[in-house]
Hints:
homodimer; mainly alpha
Amino acid sequence: xxxxQDLPAAMRQISDSVDAVFADILATPPGASERLxxxxxxxxxxxxxxxxxxxxxxxxxxxxxxxxxALLAGVAVECVHVHSLVHxxxxxxxxxxxxxxxxxxxxxxxxATAVLAGDALLALAFGLLARPETxxxxxxxxxxxxxxxxxxxxxxxxxxxxxxMAAVDTTLDKDAVVQLQQLKTGAMIGWxxxxxxxxxxxxxxxxxxxxxxxxxxxxxxxxxxxxxxVEGDERTVGKRLRKxxxxxxxxxxxxxxxxxxxxxxxxxxxRAVSSLEPFGPSAELLRSIAxxxxxRDR
Amino acid sequence: xxxxQDLPAAMRQISDSVDAVFADILATPPGASERLxxxxxxxxxxxxxxxxxxxxxxxxxxxxxxxxxALLAGVAVECVHVHSLVHxxxxxxxxxxxxxxxxxxxxxxxxATAVLAGDALLALAFGLLARPETxxxxxxxxxxxxxxxxxxxxxxxxxxxxxxMAAVDTTLDKDAVVQLQQLKTGAMIGWxxxxxxxxxxxxxxxxxxxxxxxxxxxxxxxxxxxxxxVEGDERTVGKRLRKxxxxxxxxxxxxxxxxxxxxxxxxxxxRAVSSLEPFGPSAELLRSIAxxxxxRDR
Lengths: 298, 298
């Protein structure tokens, strides 16, 4: 898997592989857990850009990591991502009916099932990382688990979501919005490229370069998301748009204006790509992902 | 810590130690995450019987595990337990206003904060287990993480909660109710005594004996809970009671009658205690916990 340097082909490969792993580990067991597994499959299989598993794989490639190791780490982070989408869509959170072009989990099932399926996906992420198939060295597995817990939890994504909800109808300055995005999406994106480095026993300089890449890409990716919220087509994007304005949410696009935000995002991508220089041609896929992150219609 | 064989003293020791660890790791960081940490502390500190950390410590004692290792593993499982209480109390789940004699988290804060604080506590559990302070050998840490993920997730507690909600106003036979309880509480109780064994490198026979102990104690504990729901004092128990009848939930107490259920629980405790025979006097605390599990007023 992921033998191709071509981005669309790599994205298809990763999507297919991620779906296959999910189909395998979320096959319905006989008995009473049927509905919970069905809900988890509904949330996890056949949707999304799979940017996070792709980033793990692209980063792992720099260090000749076995593709199967990168794939399992990628599925683990996708579990956390899907978990966060399911919980974010709940009525008490963002209250969304549409996700990836289909009814959100709590609309298709019910709210209690959405809470429990999200919880079970979060637990599954750590269970996957603990498996010997993810990496032969248990110390590497423990590092992946420890950093994922920080990135997903109170010192990362969960705090970002709290700030995001508190940011409705309040005034934040640019630094605060950048900090919010760093927690909400940056920590998890940082985990993805860091996972490739951890699986491949990268040195401190390589990890620092990749961390800088991740910071720039995640912020640019978020600006592109905010632009899509303003300019995108709901059917293509597959979720409700025009929410930021409606909810009075502070975004860089609202603060800087569309053109300045676009040029800021483009500048961030230049910086991300520069930080890949030490890796030479093996970083081609990471470069493509950086450019794609701001040139996309969904 | 936990130098005393006397159960009430041991419970106080464990409660104090668990609170101290939570106060340390959930100290509010400077900045924007204040409210999330406050909510996590509200849910985690100063309440509950701490049965799960106590079971970890009592089982670890059989194998001369360092008390600090057992304490961290106990705090991890308590994170999962508190996470499940916070999510279970949500309006879309059991819709409870009172927990441990105080307003539930979503009443004191709001529903979105309850969802996120519960999520962050679940992630924290795995982060704690990944720490070298929990055990020097990363392979032991990986085993604890892998088994906790199974016990908490779709093959354990989360499925039990799904079954429990589906069991409202339906007819289950005794085997189905026992299976429900095994998933809902048994898997996590089993993890606790198994954690002591894993930390102490117990052999297969010892693990099997402890697993049998856990199965018996968790079912007896649940029967005692169901009896408290019928007979208990709301102020002492600290949560809303008489729910099972109201919601039409199948419990062993409703199916067997109070007296038969009580004698079944007592029989289970005898079996639990028998399975401790090979461990001799070092299992005194586990024996006391077994007896306490059915003789309690909260």
